[in-house]
Amino acid sequence: xxxxxxxxxxxxxxxxxxxxxxxxxxxxxxxxxxxxxxxxxxxxxxxxxxxxxxxxxxxxxxxxxxxxxxxxxxxxxxxxxxxxxxxxxxxxxxxxxxxxxxxxxxxxxxxxxxxxxxxxxxxxxxxxxxxxxxxxxxxxxxxxxxxxxxxxxxxxxxxxxxxxxxxxxxxxxxxxxxxxxxxxxxxxxxxxxxxxxxxxxxxxxxxxxxxxxxxxxxxxxxxxxxxxxxxxxxxxxxxxxxxxxxxxxxxxxxxxxxxxxxxxxxxxxxxxxxxxxxxxxxxxxxxxxxxxxxxxxxxxxxxxxxxxxxxxxxxxxxxxxxxxxxxxxxxxxxxxxxxxxxxxxxxxxxxxxxxxxxxxxxxxxxxxxxxxxxxxxxxxxxxxxxxxxxxxxxx
Length: 395
Description:
alpha+beta; Aminoglycoside 3'-phosphotransferase, Chain: A, domain 2
């Protein structure tokens, strides 16, 4: 480390301490205020510390850039009590990361996890996320695909090769099926808009009829042949939340991009690598980001007996949808290569299944408590479609 880097590290530690004094008096009500600005942390170091609106209503995470006079930038991440344990897990994961991975995850500069408003401070990385590159920037398809290929190469070499062990025999039921059941029960308790939808046996979207999620989960669990194919041969280290939004890409050299992986969970017990890959598949196969940004049409719905009918549910941005289909085809081809290398014939199948279960489980994170729950319902419908498509293709 150069003398300049050491000086910057010392200055960042000083600033971290000063921020802690401000956080001490920051209330949860202020965190929820979308106009939040913390000013005058220290005039000699920082000109402005603009706040950011919460990334989701349940956890109120804040990710802010702090502009500092000596051209270093920091980011602050906080959580309300609901997200406190998750934030703790992230900090401990980042601090205990294996030495050969430290360059690929944020460095924890300062933290306090015991206050009502827990937080940690890390460098601010001025890189776009994979999500930004797909949805908000004019980046050629080939460039995106090169970056994804490099990311897969990194994950298989640096992450998925560590802490490999046998998978529990009840892995599929506990990790996937029961998680959806718990999430849907939670959504039903939180929002009356979901009550009739979750309880129905059939979901009708336009002219297409689908078995609803809960009865379909029961049918999947009853199929021993399908459960055996979905059972991973091994579990290993994974990122745990490998969404497009959590992968920052340094695009200076598009043929050899470097990555910073945000919000790693790295569960201690390990997971199927298909669980991790399914998080990537959410964007281009499950259309999570497209739906979350409300680029869809959702018609009126009605409930008659055990069927809920929606006049229409359709993704709206044809150009992006076409782009995502292209990425989907490319990633399938790439994953088949790793499937052969690892002698894991059902890896792609499990990845597509994991994507479907992630989308089916996403509802609680998109509730707005506005009586309509347009985005959460759209994700429920997409999850229903994906799970039905998977089941029909494999049984």
